[in-house]
DNA sequence: TCTTAATTGAAATGAACGTTTCAAAATTAA
DNA sequence: TTAATTTTGAAACGTTCATTTCAATTAAGA
């Protein structure tokens, strides 16, 4: 029977993600990926198919990694207020610890490719849907707990928060002043109380 | 004496802007620019120097075009409330009339290149500074008029609005529902009143 | 141990990349 | 008309692009 895949697919995806995140899709060459993964060209093509296909896997990997991290952070928050604050704190922490000011891979990719690549567009639509659904759930809980107001529906607040998160990620590319960003987040969340 | 430049530089910049806006910097090839401008390769290099140099001119052109448009829109608003609403209405209109869902050229470029090209980074820093200064001025006026509250300083509100604008531009790439976006803007501005 | 099938390395594919070159054409002032 | 200088067209520059090819290597089941 055949030889089996020797490399760790997850590790390879991790390395590929770092490159795409740093340079963007069009800014990343196959040679960059070969160098970063220390995989052979043909191994990459055998295992991932094409640059775009690999990138789609990278996006999914990045998305699920973020979800996992979010899950861990939220495990300790048992009410909607803590939850929404933990979410924004996670993004803030991401900004402050990113030495290269890369921003969010998904936001960047949306801006670079959503209007060009149909597969990317539908990934982004699905990502938006999921994120907003998650936020809507949190807001809805907060409204049930009477800690968030009902001036707007949970759905409306969710879109507002989704938009604020993207704004935060864009702002964090050039502004990494912790206090200013913390205050910005407080202003964003103020509307809920 | 020499032959003078025959083509209209502004028209060329307009056409180049359209291409870069549609495809992004790395997604645009010199051939794309030759095709779009119907200028010769060498004419482009004679007149603009390089792809990056041309792109810098495109960015400035786009920025000043936006400023001009903003100036016209704001000519009719004589108080801070009208002004800030006119600003957000302008962005909303931009989103709703953009058939190709390209988003904002400057936001896109910031996400693609700010962490890679020093010249782009400093352009973006200057753009951010100017935009925030403009917003701070409007907020400050509104606070003097007692129509905006003073819960936060004008400077803090300006950063908040700057971030919200970027979020709006990102959101507008996939969501073009006028009512949802109008409501989103109302939520963003609510904190000021 | 032999068969089987995937991984690997290295080279090659042709196309596209940004940029340069240069002679011919064009235009203006003298 | 001539001299000066830029624009223009077309080809070519060397490099890099994503992808393919294929023989050699590897490792597992029979």
Note down, in words, how this protein is organized:
- The structure is a homodimer of 193-residue chains.
- Chain A folds into 2 domains: 1-58, Arc Repressor Mutant, subunit A (Orthogonal Bundle), CATH 1.10.10.60; 76-190, Tetracycline Repressor, domain 2 (Orthogonal Bundle).
- Chain A has helices spanning 9-23, 30-37, 41-48, 51-74, 80-97, 105-113, 118-144, 154-174, 178-190.
- The mean pLDDT of chain A is 93.
- Helix content of chain A is 74%, strand content 0%.
- In chain A, helix 5 packs parallel to helix 8 (154-174).
- The first copy, chain A, has 9 helices and no strands.
- The first copy, chain A, has 193 residues and is mainly alpha-helical.
- The A-B interface holds A 22-24, 26-27, 100-103, 107-108, 110-112, 114-116, 121, 124-125, 128, 152, 156-157, 159-160, 162-168, 170-171, 173-175, 180, 183-184, 187-188, 190-191 and B 22-24, 26-27, 100-103, 107-108, 110-112, 114-116, 121, 124-125, 128, 152, 156-157, 159-160, 162-168, 170-171, 173-175, 180, 183-184, 187-188, 190-191.
- Chain A binds a DNA duplex (30 and 30 nucleotides) through residues 1-7, 29-31, 39-43, 45-47, 50-51.
């Amino acid at each position: 029977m055949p030889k089996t895949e020797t490399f760790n697919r997850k590790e390879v995806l991790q390395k590929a993600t770092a490159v795409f995140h740093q340079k963007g899709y069009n800014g990343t060459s196959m040679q960059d990926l070969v160098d970063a993964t220390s995989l052979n060209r043909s191994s990459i093509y055998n295992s991932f198919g094409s640059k775009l296909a690999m990138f789609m896997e990278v996006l999914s990997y990045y998305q699920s990694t973020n979800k996992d991290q979010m899950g861990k952070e939220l495990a300790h928050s048992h009410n909607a207020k803590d939850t929404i604050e933990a979410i924004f704190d996670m993004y803030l922490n991401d900004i402050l610890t990113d030495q290269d000011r890369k921003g969010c891979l998904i936001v960047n990719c949306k801006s670079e490719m959503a209007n060009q690549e149909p597969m990317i567009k539908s990934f982004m639509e699905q990502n938006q849907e999921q994120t907003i659904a998650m936020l809507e759930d949190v807001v809805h809980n907060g409204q049930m707990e009477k800690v968030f107001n009902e001036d707007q529906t949970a759905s409306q607040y969710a879109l507002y928060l989704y938009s604020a998160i993207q704004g935060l990620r864009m702002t964090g590319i050039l502004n990494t002043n912790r206090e200013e960003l913390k205050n910005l987040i407080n202003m964003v969340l103020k509307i809920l109380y």
